[in-house]
Specification:
Layout: E1 3-6, E2 28-32, H1 35-39, H2 45-64, E3 68-72, H3 83-93, E4 98-102, H4 107-119, E5 124-127, H5 136-143, H6 151-162, H7 203-215, H8 232-250, H9 270-275, H10 280-294, H11 298-322, H12 341-344, H13 350-362, H14 367-381, H15 385-395, H16 401-412, H17 429-435, H18 456-467, H19 469-472, H20 479-486, H21 490-507
Parallel strand pairs: 1-2, 1-4, 2-3, 4-5
The structure holds flavin-adenine dinucleotide (FAD) and ligand DLZ.
């Protein structure tokens, strides 16, 4: 039997289930650079270049193994633009008896492949994606019947099951499950941040950059520099350097932001994990090993492992548990359009212009920039879930709907009404000031609550609490905020609402 094995651009791993029983003499690997995938949202140029180059390198590695590969480049006359058409073309041009793939990571594509399965005349086997710690079924079993679906408890289950940072007696190493209280240290501008690990583009990547600049010139983002890994070997170098140089400081400075320092002590591996160049299990295992063998601080190692074993697994489980309804949720009825400066970085707010400019340059911003700067501002100004999801899905090199949507709709916009988060992640300027040095370069005064020169995050924050008082006043985690609000005079509140309205009318 000759089988076509379809490999998607985020399945670049030899352990992928669709390749487990490949017959090198007969089977054909099918990969294609597709317009539909590059434009279903208009992805950042760097993201497209990253994926196309990684796909070309993976195809070459398959060929080196002696496997038959049909690789359709973007400008090939055989390119049919979408998966469905490309598969139909392959079936009619290469005599084959079966189609096999690993399930797609996004709902939209799973639907398309299921529809196709009903139409095509050869057997079509869609296999489970085994690259995660938890299957979708495990999440469903854990979630069913629970009143609350908090990440922390799912994470603890996985820690127990996989015996990660656990003592023999079933207690967590160090005695606590979570060391977050130690992980909110303000940035230290005098401390040396290790250099970002740059991989020089080879001729394959250079060709792709030229192609992307030509074919996707109207997409957001810069391709003037390109230093991402595009093979597993290169991604492993980045991972190793993170473990050796940055992991020790990951915990305390996890939330910290500094002007012109996009990389801080983060790992920059999300994009590799999400396309299969790195495997989450190996990453967690190496981090745990570094704790035991190199004596790295537990708050840093646990904090890092929690991002991958906890958040990453949890959001994927939640996505498949709640789709397709999750993408339609809008608990706070937010309906404003996204401000233009999310595309241009042209804003007087320094924290936002820094975060957008870095996103434009690198297709990267770290978690707190995404959550507490870009996300927080969008929530405080009432940007609709559809608008914000489009932006986050298109601008980051690591963005796929299964991980982007729960973060944006759940964590940032509280659009799911509190399934993911127990309260909205909102803050005024004081939080950004504490965790960054941005405010000292900003024209607004972060210490002022109202007035023309007051930091807009301040009056927008209080305005948010006033606007949604009925919804959140009784939330125990917000009682302190509402106690402070209740001490304000009517005059103060009137001024807050007025300043917020002026800002929303003029700047949003
Ligand atoms: P590090 O900070 O070094 O963390 C290590 C790894 O942990 C990441 O690579 C990632 O795999 C995982 N991780 C950390 N936080 C999360 C999280 N909240 N959800 C899932 N995984 C997490 N992550 C994506 O992979 N794709 C996205 O499209 C995406 N969109 C986001 C949108 C918003 C609004 C927010 C607040 C977060 C989003 N995240 C997303 C999560 C997180 O911001 C990124 O994973 C992280 O910034 C990637 O950089 P890093 O590799 O340096 O991560
Ligand atoms: C993101 C992406 C892009 C930009 N281009 C391609 C492509 O040309 N060919 C391909 O096979 N995959 C691509 N991808 C990744 C897919 O969009 C991804 O497989 C789905 O979003 C499912 O997660």
């Amino acid at each position: 039997m000759k089988t076509i094995r379809l490999i998607l651009g985020d399945q670049l791993n030899f352990g992928i289930s669709s390749l487990s029983d490949i017959n090198p003499n007969k089977d054909l690997i099918l990969m294609a650079e597709l317009n539909e995938e590059a434009t279903y949202v208009k992805h950042h140029k760097k993201k497209i270049a990253f994926i196309f180059s990684a796909m070309r390198h993976f195809a070459e590695q398959c060929r080196k193994k002696g496997w038959n590969v049909c690789y359709i480049k973007y400008d090939s006359p055989d390119n049919k633009s979408s998966f469905v058409k490309q598969i139909q073309y392959a079936i009619s041009n290469f005599s084959c008896d079966k189609l096999c793939m690993t399930e797609a990571g996004e709902y939209r594509l799973r639907q398309e492949f299921e529809q196709l399965n009903k139409k095509i005349l050869i057997p079509f086997e869609i296999r489970k994606d085994t690259r995660f710690f938890a299957t979708e079924e495990i999440f469903r079993e854990w979630a069913n019947g629970r009143k609350q679906l908090r990440m922390e408890y799912f994470y603890r289950e996985l820690r127990r099951e996989y015996k990660i940072l656990m003592n023999e007696d079933g207690t967590p190493v160090g005695g606590k499950w979570n060391y977050d209280t130690e992980n909110r240290v303000s940035p230290d501008p005098t401390k040396n941040i290790p250099n970002f690990t740059q991989i020089e583009p080879d001729s394959v990547t250079k060709d792709v950059i030229e192609l992307v600049n030509k074919s996707f010139s109207d997409h957001f983002g810069s391709l003037e520099t390109f230093h991402y890994a595009v093979t597993r070997e290169e991604a492993l170098i980045i991972l190793e350097k993170f473990i050796n140089e940055r992991l020790q400081d990951f915990g305390p400075f996890q939330d910290a932001m500094l002007t012109d320092e996009p990389w801080m002590y983060h790992s920059h591996i999300g994009l590799y994990l999400n396309i299969g160049l790195l495997n989450p299990k190996e990453v967690v295992s190496l981090a745990e090993q570094a704790f035991f063998e190199k004596n790295l601080p537990l708050n840093s190692v646990e904090g890092f492992i929690r991002q991958i074993l906890g958040w990453r697994e949890y959001v994927r489980g939640l996505y498949w548990y709640k789709m397709p309804e999750y993408s339609q949720m809008n608990y706070l009825d937010l309906n404003r359009t996204l401000p233009e400066f999310y595309w241009s970085a042209d804003t007087k707010l320094f924290c936002l212009s820094q975060s957008v400019a870095q996103t434009f340059e690198h297709a990267y911003a770290h978690h707190i920039q995404r959550l507490m700067v870009l996300g927080n501002y969008a929530l405080l100004t009432g940007v609709s879930p559809n608008e914000l999801n489009y932006w986050f899905l298109s601008v980051y090199a690591d963005a796929y709907e299964w991980v982007e949507l729960p973060n944006v709709s759940g964590m940032v916009l509280f659009a799911d009404g509190g399934i993911l988060a127990s309260k909205p992640y909102v803050s005024g300027g004081a939080y950004i000031d504490r965790m960054s040095n941005y405010c000292s370069s900003c024209q607004f005064n972060v210490k002022k609550r109202t007035g023309e020169d007051a930091c807009p995050f301040n009056y927008l924050y209080w305005n948010f609490l006033i606007t949604h008082e009925d919804r959140f006043k009784k939330n125990p985690r917000m009682s302190m905020m509402y106690r402070t609000l209740s001490k304000m005079t009517d005059e103060n509140k009137k001024q807050i609402k007025k300043d917020a309205q002026i800002w929303l009318n003029s700047e949003c």
